[in-house]
Automatic annotation (TrEMBL):
It comes from the Eukaryota. Transmembrane segments: none annotated. Signal peptide: none annotated. Belongs to the CMP-Neu5Ac hydroxylase family. This is Cytidine monophospho-N-acetylneuraminic acid hydroxylase. Pfam families: Lactamase_B_3. GO terms for cellular component: cytoplasm. GO terms for molecular function: CMP-N-acetylneuraminate monooxygenase activity. GO terms for biological process: CMP-N-acetylneuraminate metabolic process. InterPro entries: Cnh, RibonucZ/Hydroxyglut_hydro.
Amino acid sequence: DSEFSTPNSTFLFLQVTYLTHACMELQLGGKKMIFDPWLTGPAFARGWWLLHEPPADSMERLCMADLIYISHMHSDHLSYPTLKSLSATRPDVPIYVGDTSRPVFWMLEKSQVQLTNINVVPFGIWQNIDEHLRFMILKDEVHPEMDTCIIVEYKESWKADFIKNERKKLMNYKAQLVKSLQPKIYCPFAGYFVEAHPSDRYIKETNTKNKAEELNALIKKSAPGITTWTPKPGAVLDLALALMSPSRKAITDPPSGTNIYKDSWDFDLYVDELNRAITAEIFKHKSWIQFYYNWAGFKNYDLVVRVIETDEDFIPIDNGYNYLVDFMDLSFPTQRPTREHPYEEIKNRIGVMRHVVKNGLLWDDLYIGFQNRLSREPDVYHHRFWNHFQTELPVAGPDWDLFLQQVPSYQRSAEPQGIQTKSGSACTLS
């Protein structure tokens, strides 16, 4: 393109710097955008921790950004510990999110993070930053209720049908992939393949993102003309240089001796915060179960679930809660119904489960955070159930103050019976 032909042109400053996880800094001329900043703390209720050590100046970069884009509400993209640090220095930094059916920042008030410039923008509408830079947020087609992607345009007009053509290519690619993996069936809701004859084998065969090296090799084999980049923290991709002269080295790795992988985390700070939920007053009264699931509002679905509280090793805890929920009529039987029914057993680590219940959080913290163990009869994925608890729980959390007002006073005065956790705390069951 002629716009990139002059070496001294200001069009040339197009750099992508990898920070950590999904967090990157995009510098376009004099503007800096940062995507999905997770720089500190855990994700998914301490189920995930950062693998790579962010560059030492990452938080400073975040505070100096002209704008921040957050793709969706999962805590490895929307990190409240990170945003808490950001808000202490620059609460008015412009943050942009898509207008998803469940608001990205639905937990902002409860988080007590003070951010004053959050912009929820409609899908498919250009957002102009200046005369040279604009971006558009688009809805993700696999998880349209929550996920998004972004297109950034800098000093050049996109062809009018760019989005339509690129999305068509993507759909054609998925169709070919599905055909090549028969008899596996692609599940657009779950986002993965399910075999006609259930087996765990499909995970290793189709989940190529487990290892970047394998994915790079697959791309190189299928499309030799495409260059792949598996960046290290602080690595820079100079897009302008790549556009002007593809033969020149456009990638700069971090200096020798840079700490690539994290070797320290504030485990105790976050784990102790989660475990405080174990001794919450509400869990002294068994009626919390009915109150909570009535609040959740999922019913009229033929599924019986047993939930079991466990220790860190998924061993059931003495005197821990072990209960059934029949979602056909939202009842809580003491035994499985006599009718034929699908059944799921869920073992949850007690600290995380109670943290999720107490705060009305989505079950992604359990499911994606590896905080539970599941067994199913038959081995069928219940999309309606998991989609509800992972994306459709009420935005306003359970009213536990109201619940405690409804509990008889003699129950509230019960003494702890001593469920022991590894930190030595105890809770009471009624």
